[in-house]
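=== RUN LOG ===
request id: a7f3
mode: sequence -> structure
chains: 1
length: 325
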Amino acid sequence: MVAFGSLGGTITMTRSASSGGIEPSLNAGDLLASVPGLAEVADIRPATLASVPGASLRPDDVLAALDWARTQVETGARGVVLAQGTDTIEETAYLAELYWDRPEPLVVTGAMRGPGQMPADGPANLLAACQVALAPAARDIGVLVVLDGTAHMATRVRKTHSTALNAGRSPDGGPAGGIVEGDVWLRPERRVGAPLDRPTSDAYVPMLETYLGDDGSVLRTLLAAGLDGVAVGGFGVAHTSTGLADRLAAAARTVPVVVSTRTGSGGTLSRTYGFQGSEIDLQSRGVILSGALDTRKSRLLLWALLSCGASAERVRSEFASRGRR
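=== RESULT ===
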């Protein structure tokens, strides 16, 4: 048996008479009824957990979905599938990865087109996600995202196109597997890091991306307003201007500062460049480098750690282990 929870998103959206556009309207049962052959794959237990666009999901929604998912596997589900909007799927899936503490597969899927748009990809994605959730090879490897017949590790997946059906990609390392003629293949994967403790607070961790001529004034404004940590997308392998480097160094004396690459793939280096604002310089001034984690996932990891009261030493240790290539 597979437990299926719907959070909303494009996969649930139909045309609205009031707005003229598509909006969330279908429930979990409606989605299951739209998938030919799904009943032959497994007994599916549906639940509508929310009905919102992906852009409106919050960390609390993810945590609530995880509580529901744990209950499902404790009462006999072999795996769990969550459907949601793809706008935030790379972030929600990674957040779930940080907390999922069961061997049963947790698979996140969605759609790039609504049920009334042709060709709609939702039914195929949902069928594939259920097939992956039942695959023995999907146990004990963490949270997976399944889109367009391909399975991705939550730690690597990114939405790389605004409209294409194959928008889900894993730029670093490639996909974890796929589904061909109903057969699931998955590469052996190793989870990195133990599940984190649940948040006891809501840390304020903004995310910035540097830009040509960045003198650090945006960071200065945020620091004045008060923050608990900050994630910054740097140039190249984790480079910044000299002005921003000075601001980052000042911030790192009071809160954790994590710098990643804004390029979307490749990760950061640690010992190649030595100029002011380079990765060597930033590390010498207390900045944490994200390694293989992109800026969005770096922000989520930092938020999760600070929200459960992790020490500065723990934050550095977690980034060192979870950011390994």
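=== NOTES ===
The chain has ten helices and 16 strands.
The domain at 2-186 is CATH 3.40.50.1170 (Rossmann fold).
=== END ===
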